[in-house]
Amino acid sequence: MTFAANVVSVLIASPSDTAAERDAVEQAIHQWNADRAERQGVVLMPLRWEVNAVPVMSDTPQGAINKQLLDRADIVIGVFFARLGQATKRYPSGTVEEIIEANEVGKPVHVYFSSADVPINQIDIGQLTHLKDVKADLRIRALYGEFASIDELKMKVRSALEHDLAELNLSTPAAPAREDEKPALRATYESRRKQYQDSKGRMKYRTVGTRVVVINSGNAVAREVRLSLEPVDGGALPARMDGWERPRDIAPNGGTSSYPLILMMGVAREYEATLTWTSEFGDEETTSHSLSFA
């Protein structure tokens, strides 16, 4: 079935060590298309330098990417892991050049840095130092995002695209939402064990990455999701990181949103988790269930 649509090009700007992250951003774009393209009358088209750039002898590599991809992009998603990339004539790296050039002409730009541990065989002190410097510079001039996992990156990119499309206010009429399309939210507790060496050289483990993850297993976006926890065993609430109070959109079909927290002495282990969101029809909906931090 054909349908009229606006095409919005999304450039994925990133150094060579982020192939998995570029794949994740492209997957988020394709998933948005599958979920919402027909209804919104918009198709998102991912642009990647290793796929869409044509080799030419008449320009530098970065100049060719700028002319062929950056100039035609409507939105730019920048992603960094452990490398900044190769410097160009004017900027610390090609990815930085794409981000700054796009921002200077008024295009929506979203930049994300990985907070995951870097494998020892990928550590390059020089690259990490350059990356740290660029991150510090961006902290002064803009708001950037961080992600601890591929799934978290997908979720954040999806939210950014939703924001941009709302700002663009494209005129193609959207198809109405169907009554059988509904979010289905549930909160789960996640953590992981990290090995470390104590002062006597003994290998031990500590719990890190503690967070509540909200999963949307339904077939519609859950908008303005809010999460609250109520202890049921007499303990205290955990320390919650920045962003807990901010309503957020969660994509359908397995989309997730992460709520980092810190567990301390006296913190409760059993909670009543309450999730509130706005449906596609503008109605406020709520669900509650038990949640264990065991």
If you had to describe this structure to a student in words, what would you say it looks like?
The chain has two domains: 6-168, Toll/interleukin-1 receptor homology (TIR) domain (Rossmann fold); 185-292, Immunoglobulin-like (Sandwich), CATH 2.60.40. The strands form three sheets. Strands 2-1-3-4-5 form a five-stranded parallel sheet, with helices on both faces. It has a four-stranded antiparallel sheet with strand order 6-7-11-9, with helices on one face. The termini are far apart. Strand 1 (6-13), helix 1 (19-40) and strand 2 form a beta-alpha-beta unit. It is α/β, with parallel strands linked by helices. Helix 1 (19-40) packs across helix 6. It has six helices and 13 strands. The mean pLDDT is 86. This is DUF4062 domain-containing protein. It comes from Oerskovia enterophila.
Write the topology of this structure.
Blueprint: E1 6-13, H1 19-40, E2 42-48, H2 49-52, H3 61-70, E3 75-80, H4 94-104, E4 109-114, H5 125-141, E5 145-147, H6 150-168, E6 185-197, E7 203-216, E8 222-231, E9 239-240, E10 248-250, E11 255-262, E12 270-278, E13 284-292
Parallel strand pairs: 1-2, 1-3, 3-4, 4-5
Antiparallel strand pairs: 6-7, 7-11, 8-10, 8-12, 9-11, 12-13
Helix pairs in contact: 1-6
Protein name: DUF4062 domain-containing protein
Organism: Oerskovia enterophila
Radius of gyration: 21 Å
Name given to the CATH homologous superfamily of the largest domain: Toll/interleukin-1 receptor homology (TIR) domain
Number of domains: 2
CATH class of the largest domain: Alpha Beta
Number of H/I helices: 6
The CATH architecture term of the largest domain is 3-Layer(aba) Sandwich
Oligomeric state as shown: single chain
Helix content: 25-40%
* Major sheet strand order: 2-1-3-4-5
Low-confidence stretches: none
Please identify the structural class as seen in this structure.
alpha/beta
Distance between the termini: 49 Å
What's the shape?
Answer: flat
CATH fold call of the largest domain: Rossmann fold
Name the beta content range.
25-35%
Extended strand count: 13
Mean residue pLDDT = 86
- Helix and strand pattern: EHEHHEHEHEHEEEEEEEE
Sheet with the most strands? 5 strands, parallel
